[in-house]
């Protein structure tokens, strides 16, 4: 499309990039940091864990210099809860706060806005040990105490906060939240109970920020589930609708409206999955609304009407008697993107989110995974990543032209980060981190071709011709 060649974005559009604390920092036992659920990594020999990760803990200044060279307007980053609050006492760790002070002050010095995620998969192990983490309502107060410390300490410096990253994944993955229930039905009950507690904590945090720093903004980050029906058969279309309600909109409706969608409420009750609640919860859930929604998107999925028994041998959020996940024959797949690459799906999904929630949106994660090693010339040539980012940025340009309030784009990830399951075999970064699964070496930074391409995009506030 010729229009794309001239695509210029609105003034002030936030070009950024993303990481998360446990996937990038390392320094897992330095600076007074307490243990986290994620410190065990994938738990498989020969797979890198997060003890060193990309060693951002020791490379943070170099990394911010690279961000400035790239031209970033915003850095979507995360705080490690267990670095700021290492035990169950509720007392902050001065060394942890000092680390983030240095990082945020240097970002601001370089003209880069920090967009800070409070909770990105990493759960303090001390709280899991003390009372079971998110399974217990005590976690709500612990999270609120953590949020209060962060909101107060960084008031005026952090203008945008994320409550929780990808609650769908955060509550489903036992290696991240500490829930290791073996019985599949009880595991699902636990997931919905944890999710309910997360939503209560999220709303209390949003209300708290309005008291502490009314100028700041706050919102959730949702892993949007863009679901296509396998065919135009009514049963397949309904299965796709059901899947989106169960995997995406139950979370967004709780975040935005403070209530379950009717279908989800009836489904949970019918399946013995409705969480335990207390009478005062309704007022809490209705007490606040987000200022924006962060959108994480990598690929779409395809479903058909349910056939046969429930398959528990898949991610918990795909376990249902309301749909079956199936392949989409119209999409190109790769080694790590096995559901296919689907740029238009980003526009489909974000349009649905806006029509339902009517809030400004920022893309907080979107990226192309690839297994990469340095070439003979000491470089990484990644035309596949450039193509992926270009095609998705084009869709954002179309959304903006259509009137959707999309105010920023942060590809995943700024540097290569450790995957929670695949270590460093699976790389997303604009900057290569020179290490292997078993040898961290010096974690040297090498700018990929995609770094230089994205630098041009940012400099001209739009796609190159």
Q: Can you summarize this structure?
A:
Keywords: Glycosidase, Hydrolase. The chain is α/β, with parallel strands linked by helices.
Structure description:
This protein is of the alpha/beta class. The chain has one domain: TIM Barrel (Alpha-Beta Barrel). It has helices spanning 2-5, 21-24, 56-70, 81-84, 94-109, 125-131, 138-153, 167-172, 174-177, 184-212, 234-256, 262-270, 281-285, 343-357, 383-401, 449-459; strands at 14-18, 74-78, 113-119, 160-165, 217-223, 227-229, 293-296, 301-304, 324-326, 361-365, 406-409, 431-434, 444-447. The chain has an eight-stranded parallel barrel, surrounded by five helices. The model is unreliable at 1-5 (pLDDT under 50).
* Whole-angstrom Rg: 21 Å
Number of helices: 16
Reported CATH architecture: Alpha-Beta Barrel
Span between N and C termini?
Answer: 11 Å
Number of strands: 13
Low-confidence stretches: 1-5
Percent of residues in helices: 40-55%
What is the CATH level 1 assignment? Alpha Beta
